[in-house]
Structures are given as C-alpha cells and as structure tokens.
C-alpha cells in the first residue's frame, strides 16, 4: 500500500480560493439512477435498481436474470449500458465482485476488482452518496471481511500495519478507536458519540501529518466521520474532506480491498453517508422545461396558456407535471390588477398533510386571491384525487422531494408567471397579496423571502418570485447546485445563493446574478411560533398576515431524521389551552400546530375570512409565542437550531455567552448525527 505517498496530497487540500462553477459542463440534471433509461439491451434498469433496493436476498432471487444478461452481453451492449447508466453498471460489477469474493473464487474476484477500481476513482463522492444504487452497502458486508482477498491482493483484514496494532508510542490508541465500531461477534455497534473524542482530538487537529503517517486508515476513518458531520450540519466544509476521500480513491491501488475487507469501517461509513442526502436524482419536470427551452413562445395570457396546454398535452417530450400545470392555468380565478400574472403554489403529500387539504384550500378561498389562484403540487395519488375536488382541478402530479420548492416556481417563471410559494404548514390570517405586492414594488424587489425573528437568517417557507430573467437564471442555479450536492439543505443553499449569511462551500461560487431581494417582515406580519431559538413575534394579533408553523418536515422521512424524533425531542412549543380532535391531541405534552390551527370545531374559521385569533385555542397559541422584546444575541451567528440553550443563558457575560453558544451548536450537530444513526 502506498500510504506514505498520500499524506502530502491529502493535507494540502484546504480551501484553494478558486471560484467553484455552479453550472456543470454536461447535462444539468444527469440521470444517475437511470430511472429514464428504461429497458436497454435486455436489462430493465429501473426494475434492477428496485430489486437492489430490496436488499441482498433479492439480488439473486429476483435479479438473477439481469445478472445473466449482464454477464452474457457483448461489447456493443456493454458500451451502451456504460453510456446510459454508468453507476448501474458499476453497481452490477461490484455485486459480481461481492458474489465471487464471498464464495472464495479469488481469481474471478480479482478480475472484477480490476474493472471496478478505476471506476470508483473516477466518480465524485457526492454523486455516489446521492445515488440509490447500493454501492457501499455491498462493500460493508461482514461476509467480505471474512472472505479471502482476491488473487494478487494484500490480506487487508489481517494486516497488522493496516490495523495499526503494533505502533510504538502511538499518537492515538488506534486499537480502541477501531474497536468503537464493532460489538460482540464483530457486529456493528453505536459508534457515533464515542468516536468524537478521537475524530476531534488534539492530535487529529494539530498534528495531522503525524497521525496520517502513523495510521493512514485510522486517519481516513476520521476524515469520513468529519465529512459526514459536515454533510449533516455545516455543509461548507464537506468539499475539503470529500476531496481527501476522493484522492484516496485515486491514489490507493488496493481501494476495493481496503473498502471491502478492512476492519476500519470505511465502506460502512460511506454507506452511512448516503443517509445524509436530502433528495435523490429525480425531477418531475424535464431539463428542457426547467431550462426554459419550451416549444412555444412566451404566453401573454391565461387563454393563450390554455392553447399551449392543449398543444403540448399531445407531445411526448412534455412531462406529466408540465402538462398538468398548463391544464391548471385556465382554471385560475381572477387576478389582482396590480399583479395579473400572480399565482400561489405549494406542495402536499402524505396523510399527515392530506387530511388538512380541505380546510387549507377553503381558508385560502375565503380570503379571495390566494385560494382562487392556488395551484397544488400533489405528490401522491391521494393528494391528487383530493385536490381535484378541493382545489378546482388546479392540481399537478409529482413525486415527493424538496427540490419541488424550486422546480415549480422556476417553470412558472418560464411561463411568465410570478409566484408566491407557501409551505403547507402555514395559516393564512389575511390575504397576503396586497402586502407582498406593495413590498415588491417598493424596491422594486424580484424576490421576497420570510426571515427569522431574532437572527439574520432567511426561511424559504414563504417566497415571492417575480418572473424576470435574473430570477429564472438564479433559480436554475440554485436547483442545479442542490441537484449535484444532494446533502445540501434547501434553505441554506437559498441563503448562500443570495450571498447572505450562509455558505455552501469554503471557496467562492460562480454565482448567477443575484436578483434584488428583501425579507418579508418577520416581526409582526410573516411570523413564526417560538419553537426554536430566534423565533417568535411581537406586535398586534390583527397585523399578522401568515403564521408559519415551522413544521420541520424537510428532513423527516429522509435518512437524516426518519421518524422526526429529533425535532419532537428538541422543539419546545406547547399549549396548555389546546383544542384539537382525535389523535391530534395525543402529542405527549406537545401540540402539532398544524392540527391545532386546522382542527378546530368552528367551521366558520375555514369558510369565512373570520380573524383566526378570535378562536380561543388559536389565540392562546399565538400569544404563547409573542415576545416583549427582540433579542440581538443571534445576529451574526450560524443559522439553525441549538440544543440545550436556555433563556437564562442570555444573561451570561459576553465571553461566556460565546462559549455557551458554541457548545450548544456542537451539541445540535451531534444530536442530529445521532438521529441519523
């Protein structure tokens, strides 16, 4: 193993200061998971992917016929597969390596090792961890660690030097560090919290050269954990650690053996890193639709949009979502004279939200324009069917994904439509249209976004987009960056692309032109409950325009927080005077604001423009988050929730306060990582 030749390369990969391009040289939205490939030379690639996602037992029981075709394919077929689905081909070859190695066929395993190694080295880490192909799941198998090495390969599992077991006066206790990952009978155990003392030790931070030379795989294990930490918390540092991992893939000649057979949990950590992604490689709209390369000229009115819809509805190149959008536009109600092209858009799916659709739409209609010009991006069949009756047919079919917050406003902008995106976890207190339009004209501003009550952070749960060329280019840039960096948080990226208080890379980005923008009033108009630090409101009840619950669903259901347990534990909203129905009241002392606001027995609250604060339970909930003053302690600090912060901490001396803030930020990151495990 050429360990010693690596350390200078690895340790030289700090921020370079070079501008990072946002737009790729190739396709804007490559189909890494091959969902659009279909059947090619006998292999149904989406079906084979679905089989791999079922787990190892299904790989042969259901996928054997694809393996047979894959192994028997001629050169022409193989080349077509590589061109159309490179990650799928790599996945198939890794599977064949796995099967060969565990049955002890070291010669065949060696042949696949030689095929796979350069392909792993050529693939960006962020691309692999964002894919649904279970590449690292195969390499993290216990069976591989027990299998003999491929022909001509070192016995990595039993190599004392690789395991760092006989180091004189070691910088770190490598044996204990390695043992953190393995329990009885060498089963993986909970390693997250125990590893922190090693990963962020004084030696790792201040003498990395010595650590790397002494135990390269131990050092790389720490780098992987740091990369994972960055991906789940401060993403701007991910790139530097990912670079080190990618350089290891390039420089290490025994890369497959090290990943598959070593007792250092490299493949396991890489597989775990796939849980740090917030979306997969799929969009409901086509690249042409998102780029504005539409078959028709810009429409001048809804009636002409209807003509375009009838035309494109028969065209194969139009996506189902695009056809649905064009079909919905003629169903829009009256537009305000000052904003004739304005529409309201949101997305909805899942029983938790679908059951509130009727009252959400009814309340919007009761206020006028928000309901009459509301378009729902329905992301499951139940939502679509409900929408047809509850929202006048203004329904777009799609699939769940956080990138929808950018795709739908972008396509609408290409059609000349200004949009107000509102997350579904809001309650419309009054029609927001006059306030938004007046604010936009004061700039004039092309983007308006809701913000934090006490921190200089934005919240892209409520956003106004004017359909200008700058906004279209900017939205496309945000979408492309998010797509190619699947671990990125949408709100963090939004802020970074406005060049505001967040960063997504340590080096500068080649940002598109930033449209003129401003924050909506977070103090008394577009306000939030006191769920996490920095939230709340002050002022008068009758001046609140939209109340945003901050339901926190962007990570729930993803690998980052599958059950939503992290937010349930650390969110602090409660209401002693709650009124709700059925199971929505069973909250263990914490109430769902979605259920509280949309679960009242007074039907007039949803069918008339009745002031919501006249309802006793809603009034109590609103007042419980009203504050007497606006603290400035969070200004200039990183955005995001903190764990363990108490209100009395504000009274600490300034130097102690900063140390306390740092500790609770670190605890928030650690707890988020633990939830992922």
* CATH top level assignment of the largest domain: Alpha Beta
Task: Give the biggest sheet.
Answer: 7 strands, mixed
Separate helix tally: 35
Proportion of strand residues: 5-15%
Low-confidence stretches: 1-5, 296-303, 554-589, 671-677
Number of domains: 3
Brief account:
The protein contains 35 helices and 12 strands. With 677 residues, the protein is an alpha/beta fold. Residues 1-5, 296-303, 554-589 and 671-677 have low confidence and may be disordered.
Q: Can you offer a commentary on this structure?
A:
Residues 1-16 form the signal peptide. It comes from Cladocopium goreaui. The protein folds into 3 domains: 85-276, no CATH class; 287-573, Spore Coat Polysaccharide Biosynthesis Protein SpsA, Chain A (Alpha-Beta Complex); 647-676, no CATH class. 46% of the residues lie in helices and 7% in strands. The chain is built from 35 helices and 12 strands. Strands 5-4-3-6-9-8-10 form a 7-stranded mixed β-sheet, sandwiched between helices. The protein has a 3-stranded mixed β-sheet with strand order 7-12-11. Strands 1-2 form a two-stranded antiparallel sheet. Strand 1 and strand 2 (43-44) form a beta hairpin. Helix 6 (86-102) runs antiparallel to helix 7, helix 16 runs antiparallel to helix 17 (238-251) and helix 21 (302-312) packs antiparallel against helix 22 (320-328). The longest helix is centred in the last third of the chain and has 23 residues, at 654-676. The model is unreliable at 1-5, 296-303, 554-589 and 671-677 (pLDDT under 50).
